[in-house]
Design brief:
Keywords: Membrane, Transmembrane, Transmembrane helix
Structural class: alpha+beta
Protein name: FixH family protein
Strand order of the largest sheet: 1-2-5-4-3-6-7
InterPro entries: FixH, FixH_proteobacterial
Radius of gyration: 28 Å
CATH class of the largest domain: Mainly Beta
CATH superfamily of the largest domain: Immunoglobulins
Number of helices: 4
CATH topology of the largest domain: Immunoglobulin-like
Distance between the termini: 80 Å
Number of strands: 7
Transmembrane segments: 14-38
Number of domains: 2
CATH architecture of the largest domain: Sandwich
Largest sheet: 7 strands, antiparallel
Strand content: 25-35%
Pfam families: FixH
Order of helices and strands: HHHEEHEEEEE
Helix content: 25-40%
C-alpha cells in the first residue's frame, strides 16, 4: 500500500486542535453574547436574603390587593431636586397621616441608599426637597401610623441626567 494514500485519511493532532478551537470558540462566543444581553437589559436586584424575599412575595402581593380594594393609590413624582407623593384612599386614614417615609435604593448596591421623610403639604400630598443622582432607583414608600402600616408601595424610577 502506498504511504501517501494512508496519510491522506489519517486523523492528526491538527484536526483535533481545529475541533477543540471550534467547540470552545462556540461556547465562549455564546457565553459572551449572553453576558452582554444580561448586562445590557437588566439592571439587577439586590436582596439580602433571596430565600426570605421569595417567601414574603405572596404575603406582599396579598397586602397590595387588599390596599387596592380599599381604594388606596399612590403616585410618585420625582425630579433632580424634589420628591412629591400623592396618596389617595379612605379620607379618615389619609387625614391621620403626618408623613410618609421613602427609602431610596439602587437596584444593585447599597452605597447610595438613603431614607427621606416626606412631610404633609396638603391632604394626601407629601413632599420633600432632596437632590437625587441620575440613574435607576427603587423607592419604597411606607405610610405608618401608630405602628400600623396604612399603605406601602414600591416603585422603580429613572432620573435622567439633565446636564447639557
Amino acid at each position: 500500500m502506498n504511504q501517501k494514500a494512508a496519510a491522506k485519511g489519517t486523523f492528526t493532532g491538527w484536526h483535533m486542535f481545529a475541533i477543540m478551537i471550534a467547540f470552545f470558540g462556540t461556547i465562549i462566543a455564546v457565553n459572551s453574547l449572553m453576558a452582554y444581553y444580561a448586562s445590557a437589559s437588566w439592571s439587577g436586584l439586590l436582596a439580602k436574603n433571596t430565600y426570605v424575599a421569595s417567601q414574603d412575595f405572596n404575603l406582599k402581593a396579598e397586602e397590595a390587593r387588599e390596599w387596592a380594594s380599599r381604594g388606596f393609590k399612590g403616585r410618585l413624582e420625582v425630579d433632580a431636586e424634589s420628591v412629591r407623593y400623592q396618596l389617595e384612599g379612605p379620607a379618615a386614614e389619609i387625614d391621620a397621616l403626618k408623613s410618609v417615609t421613602a427609602l431610596f435604593h439602587r437596584p444593585v448596591g447599597y452605597r447610595q441608599d438613603f431614607e427621606l421623610e416626606l412631610k404633609k403639604d396638603a391632604n394626601g400630598i407629601f413632599t420633600a426637597e432632596h437632590a437625587l443622582a441620575s440613574g435607576q432607583w427603587i423607592v419604597d414608600l411606607a405610610s405608618v401610623e401608630h405602628g400600623k402600616t396604612i399603605y406601602h408601595q414600591a416603585t422603580r424610577i429613572t432620573i435622567s441626567d439633565t446636564s447639557p
